[in-house]
Inverse folding.
């Protein structure tokens, strides 16, 4: 696999109108703009085909690459917060980026 992409908390068939987007990219594919291109396409489909009103991406505060992907894909910083890491259960700093349908330009 080159990448993994998932929309959390979203099942359009049940009427969900917002989702959290999560992704991983194999390291040997970093720096090629692939994930930015994929996230842009997912945003396009989410807003134009599935009528979502909002997408969000949550990154670890130290993950500058994921923050760049979010920003280059049209997402804006919404908030910074502390939360428990799902794997280590330790408190970490996170950034949440959001993309509202009203901000989307085809």
């Amino acid at each position: 696999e080159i990448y993994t992409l998932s929309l959390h908390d979203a099942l359009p068939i049940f009427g969900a109108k917002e989702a959290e987007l999560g992704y991983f990219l194999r390291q040997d594919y970093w720096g090629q703009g692939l994930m930015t291109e994929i996230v842009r396409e997912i945003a396009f489909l989410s807003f134009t085909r599935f009528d979502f009103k909002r997408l969000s991406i949550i990154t670890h505060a130290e993950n500058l690459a994921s923050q760049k992907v979010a920003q280059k894909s049209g997402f804006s910083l919404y908030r910074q917060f502390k939360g428990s890491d799902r794997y280590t259960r330790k408190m970490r700093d996170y950034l949440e980026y959001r993309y509202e349908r009203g901000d989307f330009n085809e």
Strands lie at 3-8, 18-25, 54-60, 76-84, 91-100. The chain has a mean pLDDT of 86. Residues 66 and 106 are 23 Å apart (CA to CA).
